[in-house]
């Protein structure tokens, strides 16, 4: 089977899973039926290639090719994630998994015999769309987060993470995926931006991930009647939130950074009532750790000042913060040299950043996104560029699993 045909068949098999008939977007939240179907699909694809999948107690998966290579030679792991944001796109995550399988096929077609094991992996809950912790699967396996810390996290319906994992037929007591045999991690991902479009190239290599995080703003006020309460008598947290959202936009624009309020919860959420509580989640990203801290401090300060004028109260909580990640520069240069690809930064978080922070030499390969749109049903990549990404990933993996040193 040709690489193109194999890629397109896998993509066609994945296309309907978790897809909304109304929007065309994807709802592939972790530990749901859609995610379970994706996990089964990955197992079947690995079995077709004669690989045995290991699934850990929370659903992370890995399958090894040539696992009996010399034990002194740590393996190379590639892959990504299969979950999506709410109403997300098809490519964010799955492109890296499908490309990993297709790259393995291509290596076999080329007659490559690895000198070290090659693993294909899938991490769960990368997006943090259900339990609010991005890259939760990789955070747990690297020890950046413990199961004791994570198990009581709750989704929007109040379901605890531990209960959701149990309901999915998984057993956390069975243990987590071990990364002891991983010497290098390479993640292919659709680019979430327009850098490669502007450069007019199909493939790039990552240099760094901007620091980023999620902060919860709880604006407390006083519920009251929308008709009988004079405007000057109100303690309306919606006003405080609205001005904070505008302040975040202004501060980010002035600093050349990123700030987004994309999720809001209102109580009692009645049309004819002044709210008692508005909870909003800020996603902030910046070019350095100091710049991120300054951005969030500025937004928080303006929110406090506005709360004082509105007679409301603000509680600001950092829920998930990831520092800047500089990928292994020597490894990035080595991989970029294979195809003459540009080395570019990314403002999006990835499992690769978590593994890099854990001390594993890590690289990312990006595939051009013609519009730059991501986390949306409009997310897209041309098949020709995807196939160029598969070729690039196969070239990278051939280099890393060959007879030379894997990590550098």
From TrEMBL:
By its UniProt entry, which Pfam families does this protein fall under?
Peptidase_M20
Q: Which UniProt keywords apply?
A: Hydrolase
Tell me which InterPro entries the record gives.
Amidase_Cbmase, Bact_exopeptidase_dim_dom, Peptidase_M20
Q: Hydrolase: is it a keyword of this entry?
A: yes
Q: Which domain of life is it from?
A: Bacteria
Q: Which family does it belong to?
A: Belongs to the peptidase M20 family.
Q: What is this protein called?
A: Allantoate amidohydrolase
Species, as recorded: Nocardioides zeicaulis
